[in-house]
Design brief:
The protein is an alpha/beta fold and 301 residues long. It is built from six helices and 13 strands.
């Protein structure tokens, strides 16, 4: 019976990666003397959660935006500026993909969508119409542009972003503001995921194998700050918020150690002391499936 309960609980665990991205100023670290030392020693230091700040979430988008309009209010940062009437998210979970096409009820430009073609000829007064004249002037190509649908066998849209308050639909359409360093942080995220996700899955299995449990009614959040040198090499990892399970906190730190270096950082994020400070959140989320999600957060400069 106990084994069955553990298996059921495992089905509720979704591995979610939230990455906070921000260059902080005036951040007080524990033991500043280590920063003055130019060694490449990696440290694991626990800080108070009061050092963290609320940031904007970075989300994945299609390569081409629906438009280049800046929304008045946006909760998200992305690769592009984009404004939509109604925000939606893909129903399926997985690496980002939008295949439902552009347009539909979510784009602000929908009012300017092509209209059906009018009749080619106008009947003279008193002339009876033929069957050809009565045939609807319907252009299937225009219909596909207005209401795009996936063809048979096409993959469904999906996203790894954690969008709890967004309605599910055929694709992910969000109000976003362009984040100038999006590409660099996306690259870091990709490197980290390949180490962190297998590690956290292994640690979760180990926890259950040892007879321990993970509370499934709440998310477990590990907040860390990483310090890179100007070349993208990892200098230091600090935990600013513990998840309540040391195994999960260790997995976050180990992921950065395994994934570094992160070369070619933008000069704009290098601070005066030659370091780069980035905040990341790792979340083990309670859910009804076992697919990993990925989220990132940042402050728009």
């Amino acid at each position: 019976m106990r084994k069955l309960m553990r298996n059921n609980l495992m089905a509720f665990i979704v591995i979610s990666l939230l990455i906070h991205v921000c260059v902080w100023t005036g951040l007080q670290f524990t033991s500043e003397s280590h920063l003055e030392n130019k060694t490449e020693k990696i440290e694991f230091v626990v800080l108070d959660q009061s050092h963290t700040k609320k940031l904007m979430q970075i989300v994945e988008q299609s390569e081409k935006p629906l438009n280049d309009e800046i929304p008045e209010e946006a909760k998200f940062l992305g690769a592009h500026n984009q404004r939509v009437v109604k925000e939606t998210k893909a129903q399926n979970v997985g690496d980002f993909r939008n295949t439902a096409g552009k347009g539909g009820d979510n784009t602000p430009s929908q009012a300017s969508a092509p209209k059906p073609k009018s009749a080619k000829t106008k009947l003279a007064k008193g002339t009876l119409p033929t069957l050809s004249d009565l045939r609807p002037s319907f252009d299937p190509q225009v219909s596909r542009e207005i209401n795009p649908t996936r063809g048979a066998g096409s993959p469904a849209s999906q996203t790894n972003d954690h969008l709890k308050d967004t309605k599910s639909s055929l694709e992910t359409l969000l109000n976003t503001r362009e984040f100038v360093y999006y590409t660099y942080y996306q690259r870091i995220r990709t490197q980290i995921r390949q180490f962190w996700e297998p590690s956290i899955r292994g640690k979760v299995k180990k926890i259950f194998a040892q007879g321990r449990s993970i509370a499934s009614e709440k998310d477990h959040i590990t907040r860390v700050i990483i310090i890179l040198n100007q070349n993208g090499g990892l200098m230091r990892v600090q935990v600013v918020g513990e998840s309540g399970l040391k195994d999960l906190d260790d997995a976050a730190v180990e992921a950065f150690r395994a994934a570094e270096p992160f070369p070619n950082p933008p000069k704009g994020i290098v601070e005066a002391d030659g370091t780069i400070k980035i905040n990341w959140d790792f979340i083990l989320e309670a859910s009804l499936d076992d697919t990993s999600r990925t989220q990132r957060y940042a402050r728009n400069p």
